[in-house]
Structures are given as C-alpha cells and as structure tokens.
Write a structure and sequence with these properties.
The chain is mainly beta. The protein has 2 domains: 45 residues, no CATH class; 229 residues, Porin, CATH 2.40.160.20. The protein contains 4 helices and 12 strands, in the order ααααββββββββββββ. An 8-stranded antiparallel beta barrel has the order 1-4-5-6-7-8-9-12. β4 and β5 form a beta hairpin. α1 runs antiparallel to α2. The chain is elongated, with a radius of gyration of 34 Å. The N terminus is likely disordered.
Amino acid sequence: MSIRFAPLLISLALLSGNALADHVIKTLVPTEVRKSYDGLLVAMSATALDAPEERHDWTGLYVGGFVGGAAGTRATTTQPNSPGNNGWNNTLEGPYSYLTKAAAMGGGTVGYNWQLGRSPYVVGIEGELGHLGSKGSTIDPGSSGTNNDGSHETKIGGTYGFVGGRAGYAYKRSLFFVKGGAVFLKTKTGYNDDCSTGACGPGLLNTSAKKQAVGYGIGAGIEQALPPEWFEQAKNITIKVEYLYLGIERRQTSSGTASTDSAPLPVYVTSDRIRGIHTAKIGINYHFAGF
C-alpha cells in the first residue's frame, strides 16, 4: 500500500472508534508509518475525554445585598392592671394572643470565607444590616360598648443587625451552608384607650415600652457562583437563597397612668410575650479575588 494514503486511513479509522482504529492501522499501515502516528493516537484519544470542571475557590472577601420577607409572629398579652384593681376594664381576663403581619425586608451583607485547603469545606464570618417592620394589634376583649374601648399593639423591627459564622460544603460551583449568630432587633409594645364617651367610660390610658432585643439567628441556604463564560466578571458573582430564623423570644412590660385617676396615680402594667420571626431572602454577592 502506498505510504501517502496512510494519513487518510488513520484519520478514517480514528473517527470510527478506538477498536476499529487499532485493527485498521495494524493491518493496513506500514510499521514505519504507524510508529510516526503514535503521538497522534494519544492526542486524539485525550480529546475524547471531558475536561475536568474548573474548581471554584470560595476564599475571600465578599459584599452584597438582599431582599425578602418576614413572616408574622404571635404576641401574647394581658389586660392593663394595677395593684388593688381588677384590671383597666373592671374585669381581669387571662392572657390572650394575636398575630403581627408579614413584612418585606431588605439590606446588605459583608463577609469573609476560608476554603480549607483543597477540601470542599468552607468556613466564614458574616454580618448583615437590614430593615423589616412587622406589627399587629387587637381589641381588648374586656372593653365595653361598640367603640372598642382599648387595644394592644406590637411592633417588631425597623433597622436590625446580624453577626455570626457560616460553615459550608462546596460542590462544583455551589455552596451549601448553615449559619448562626446574634441578632439585634427593636420591639415595641403598648396599650391605647383613647375613647371616653358613651359606654367607653371617662378614663383614658396609654402604656408603652420599647426595647432593643438581643437574640439569636440560625439558618441555612445555597449560594451559586455564576458560570465564568457568561461575561468577564461572572466568576466573581454569586446568587444565594437563604432562610434565617430571628430568635427574639422575650417578655416585656409596658406601663402608664390613667388620665382620670387622682394622686397618687396608680401605674397600670401589661405583660407581653413576643415570639421569633421566620425570614426568607434572595441575594447577590460580589467576591473580591485576592482578598
């Protein structure tokens, strides 16, 4: 067989599959030509294998923002009462509860990750500053008449903060993580009776209390790095979905004096118990390479 047809035979054989390629080359191609194509066989076989996916490195500083929502929570309260009285509305009921409303939330995030060597394990620290506002109210069941003489109100939120740690497992370009830390959130409770006509009776009463709640936050999420081929900076951008429970369970009291009482003015007190809040959010982070 003419040597000049050897390249054509080898090429056709290679395109037909490795087993057929070996048979054709060994049978029809002269030994001296076959040896010269050994390197080509190795190279062509290597191209048939899928190239390994590039490992994403999670180490470094990142900043970002998020939006989401906070579910309503339950508040349990008591009717205002003072020593020697049966309660503001003459009958002292037991505790009763009501729900605050769900609310939107949003804010910013800053953190730092350390990927432990070449392992898939990632640890880090993270802080977030955001805003949410959940509030609710209910009529005092002991109030008289049709004017609903007295109501309770609870407000949770405004500006809040979280600082804590993260631990995660990286798989390809995804990071599955859990997080936990301290949360700082304002709570405000109060009772308002501004009806003094008809069946309401002559008295007016307002109680209020505001505190900075310090609790715990615990949650989990998934963070996904964008494919680097999308655009130049895609490898530095991640999208995350996260659940975080704000554990601000606490009891607080609000107090005030009535407008119609004579000195010494008795202090009326309500006792309120506030439960934690479930939140969910989606965010975007930018990771700084080399930090």
